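Title: Prediction job returns without error message
Component: structure pipeline
Severity: low
Priority: P3
Assignee: unassigned

Description:
Job completed but the reporter wants confirmation the result is attached to the right record. Sequence as submitted:
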Amino acid sequence: MTDTKDNIKKEKVKTTTVIYSVIIIVVAYVILIGVLIYGFGVNNEITNVSSRYIPYPAAIIDSKNFVTLGDFDSNLKSIKGFYENQDFSQIGLRIDFSTEEGKKRMKIQEKQLLNKMIEDKVIEILARQSGIKITNEIVDQEVSRKLDEYGDKQSVEENLANFYGWTIEDFKEKIVKADLYKEKLGKFFESQDNSSNELKSKIEDAGKELESGKDFSDVARDYSDGSTAQDGGGLGWTTKEQLIPGLAESVFNIEEGERSGIIESELGFHIVKVEEKKLEEDVGMVKIKQIFVRKKNLADWLEEKMSDMKIYIPLKDYYWDKDGFEAQFRDESLREFEKEIIKEFQGDASLIY
C-alpha cells in the first residue's frame, strides 16, 4: 500500500515537472522571439510564423489595445504581393523593391501601413466608446453592396486572391469593417461638432474688415487658414474642375476684380476674389485669392483624441511622434529619403497604393 502511494506521488511529481518544464520552454521561446523582434529587429520566417500565433504587439494604445505584429506582417505581405502582381512599367511607373533603394521604398510602405493600422484601431476604439456597433449583419450587407459595385463575386474573389492573397473574409476584416467604423464615427463626430457657428463668425469678421476697406491680402493673412494665408490667400490660376464642388460654380460667376460673399463648402467657409479671367485652349481659367476658414473635420478630432492617448511602438525601427500623430522612422536617413521620394512622387508606384 505504501509503495502504491509512493508511486502515485512520484507520478504526480513527474507530471508536475513535465508541465513546468513545458511552461518554462514556452515562456523562454516567447521571450527569445520577442528579443529577436524588438531588440534586434529580426524579420525572418521564424519570427513571422511565431507572430501569427503569439500576439506580439506592433503598436500599443492605452496599454490594453494592440495592433498585432501578426496582422501587420500579414498586411505587409499583401502589399508586397500586390506590387509583385502588377506591371507598372506599362504606364511609365518604375518599381523594383529588390535594390537598396527599393528596400527603402518598401520601408516607406511599411511605415504608411503601420500608421493606417494605428489609425484604424484608434477609430475602432473611439467608435465603441461612442456606442457604435458594427454587427456581422451590417458588414455582410456592405460586402454584398461592394460586390455588386465591383462585379460578380467570383471575379472579386479571384482578384483578391491573385493581387493580395486575401479571401472574402479577409476583405471584410481588413477593409470593409474598418471603413464602416470610420464612416459611422464620422457621422457621430458631425452630430457632436458645435464649432460651425464660431467659424462662421470668424469669416463674417473677415468680411467686415473687407467692407471697411482693408486690403484683401492683409485680411487673408489675419484670418485665413491654410498654407496660402501668408501669401495673402493667393491660389493662382485655376480651372473650374480644379475647384471643389460647391465652390467652382460660385467662383466662375464672379466678375473680374470682384469678390464673393461668404461661400460654404464641405471644407469650410470662403470669401473669394477673382483677380483675372482668361481662356486657355478654350478652357476658362480664373486667377483667385481666398480667405478660407477651415471646418473642423474627423481628422482634426482624431488628432485631438490621439493626443490624449498613450501610443507606444515597440518595433526597433519606429517611434511614436506625439506632435505629428504618426509612427516615425528612428533612422534620420530614412526620414530624409522619404521627404525626397514625396517630392518626386510622379513616376513612383511605391506611393500610389
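Comment from assignee: result matches the submitted record. The chain has twelve helices and nine strands.
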